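The pair is quoted verbatim underneath.

:::
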Amino acid sequence: MQTTLVLQNLLSAPVLFFVLGILAVVMGSDLEIPSPLPKLFSLYLLLAIGFKGGVELSHSGLGPMVLSTIAAAILMSLLVPLGSFLVLSPRLGADNAAAVAAAYGSISAVTFITAQSFLSVLNVPYDGFMVAALALMESPAIVVGVVMARLAGTNLEKGQGSQGNEPIAWKEVMQEAFLNGSVFLLIGSLVIGALVAQFSPSGIERMEPFTEKLFYGVLCFFLLDMGLVAAQRLRDLRQTGLFLVAFAIAAPLLHASIGLVIARVLGLPQGDALLFMVLSASASYIAVPAAMRMTVPQANPSFYITSALGLTFPFNVVVGIPLYMTLVQRFIPAT
């Protein structure tokens, strides 16, 4: 890994604020972000990235490269939870394995946004259509996780015992998979951005003070809160065991490597290749936990939340992104 890339990532404002949040918990500071604000910041980031991605998608169109990349992203969101479930189920049991597998098959929008910020610092261009891949990778993993739990004989009907012949509560599954707030806002903002770019281009300029100038500062504030939350979740590692700790570090490395191979086969440029690797390597700690609590209530939240948020998220933000960029520069030629 190139030392300069690591330093550029570590010394960027968003990552430094993330580290500051971790230090606040470690050193016993009473620093906290009032509870309504992190939710607002999250919604803002999703709206801004979705809108900008929609504008770029309108400009690029749905060509072969765009469609093949989106198809590959959806395929990853199906295969990663399947493979993860096979690895995890012998040690964690079907319920916990399904929930963790769904988290790792899904994505972290904040990790993706941090990678975009990293590319901007390096002046490496990337395409807005990658946001479409981001938006479409969340839901399939949730469905796969629920189906895996059901096929393993888990009852999904609100903790009424384990009956293998109970039907899957498809209405609840689909509600959480496709209509949870983060997915709905991201896809909706993407569509709005594309429509505005197509039919009312002047609206893009009017949105710029909101979607561009505020973005970096809000990202810093949000990552400060994420540092606080991630450090608090690290205390739960005693319940997860060394096996899950190892998985939380090894999984993003393996999935990012698979993402690199796919990006090279697709012929993606370096910026898009890094974003595809980050999508493949990240894990959901918002949408998937909300879905799993409802559809697989027997699963232990300490497993799938702590591994995704307490380990994989900080690993990707601090170490993973510059490591993946090093691999991109090694195996994908600059254009």
The mean pLDDT is 87. The chain has 16 helices and no strands. Residues 104 and 283 are 4 Å apart (CA to CA). The two ends are 21 Å apart (CA to CA).
